[in-house]
Amino acid sequence: MKSGQKIDCYTLKNVAKRYDQREVLRVDELALNTGEILALVGPSGAGKSTLLRLLAFLEQPDEGTISWQGRPVDGRWPDLESRRQVTMVFQQPRLLKRTVLENIGYGLQLRGQDVAKNGRLESLCRDLGIYDLLDQKSSKLSGGEQQRVALARALILEPQVLILDEPTSNLDPQNIALVEKMIERDNAERGTTVVVVTHNIFQAKRLSHRTGLILNGRLQDVSDTASFFDNPRNEETRRFISGEIVY
Is the peptide bond before 78 cis (omega within 30 degrees of 0)? Predict the structure, then answer.
């Protein structure tokens, strides 16, 4: 696994997000390095998915500043071309009521590209174990197959940033290993920046360069993954990884 490059892809300062006057997320400061894999862990409802939505430009913060590639995000920036460099895969796959091939090629089609001429399609689908499903309707797939199709649809776009919300929650151990290998390879070969939310702390240890803990809507700690798990500097982190905080 390559170490992340020290170039800020995102910076967040004093960011807060509220729903119905209730603050669900607060991040005092976070810099995300280009080319790193950052894992986010914490209990359900802690605010992890909200942070992902902010990073994917699906929502804007109510306070603070998010910068992308050194420029503050506002109503005019990032532009469409820049937004297309960030792709999110949701915990519940959102597939079209079409074939697997049509789902994987949908983003390419929106960009004016011919999926049939894409050189990565066959190898990507074979590596994810879905090549034999290309003609299947998405409604006929299992939950795990749908998750792998959603990941293929994201990876074929070759984004600069890949944002993943529980990407292996419906998969068996064999397919978890397969998906993790694909994420690691894309990061190593293309330098893709990856942000992944996971409830599986062993997955965070295997995949990430750094790991962050979100509790009660606050980003409590971010540190390199080895230190996070083996020598936590934060008491809340220690309690979380020891199982004192149930997740």
Answer: yes
